[in-house]
Amino acid sequence: MPETDDMKYYLLSSEIIDFEDENIQKTALNLSKDIKDETELIKTVYEFVRDDIDHSMDIYSDEVTCNATDVLKYKHGLCFAKSNLLAAILRFLEIPTGFCYQKLEFDIGMGLHGLNAVFIKSMDKWVRLDARGNKNGINAQFTTDKEVLAYSPIKKSGEIDYPTIYASPNTKVIEILRNSTNLDEAFDLIVNTDFF
């Protein structure tokens, strides 16, 4: 459910989705080289962010990245940061990309999880993609029919799958990523902040 029907908002650059950066553009052009099919292009970019950019917690990084250029530079980020990079590359390639969220039960409590939605013009529909990164127990895939995301919220446990596709990342999430000095601090705030 997009928050607006005006696709231009899903193609904008910003301080966070900073696709004017030369490295973002180079990466986008390299990934899209010789690909003519829109769906194949989206899949290629998605799998690059999912597989070639680590999830910060999986590699025990203490560094917190936020904007797309830093995620690309340092090759890692939390789910939110990885979604910023995916959006930047796809938007540079003129593919409308938005932001989606889930509320999930983690070891230390309920917290927010971030993912993307892309608009596939040839199919005239939005498809959600989760570039969190696969590991034991998580196997997100690119698919245009049935969603195969990193997590499936369990309603009876209080988990929530928020239906809105936002044009911009959540401002509270960005604030946490920008202001946290380490990963533990960021994750603690993600669990203890009321986002919606």
Task: Give a structural overview.
With 196 residues, the chain is of the alpha+beta class. It has helices at 22-32, 38-52, 68-74, 79-92, 171-179, 183-192; strands at 54-55, 76-77, 97-106, 109-120, 125-129, 160-161. The strands form two sheets. Strands 5-4-3-6 form a four-stranded antiparallel β-sheet. Strand 3 (97-106) and strand 4 (109-120) form a beta hairpin. It is globular.
| Main β-sheet description | 4 strands, antiparallel
Q: How large is the share of residues in beta strands?
A: 15-25%
The CATH class is: Alpha Beta
Strand order within the widest beta sheet:
5-4-3-6
- Helicity, in percent? 25-40%
| Stretches with pLDDT under 50, minimum 5 residues | none
Count of discrete alpha- or pi-helical segments spanning 4 or more residues = 6
Q: Class by helix and strand content?
A: alpha+beta
Query: If you consult CATH, what is the topology?
Result: C8orf32 fold
Q: Separation of termini?
A: 16 Å
**What's the overall geometry?**
globular
Q: In total, how many beta strands?
A: 6
Q: What order do the SSEs take from the amino end to the carboxyl end, as H and E?
A: HHEHEHEEEEHH
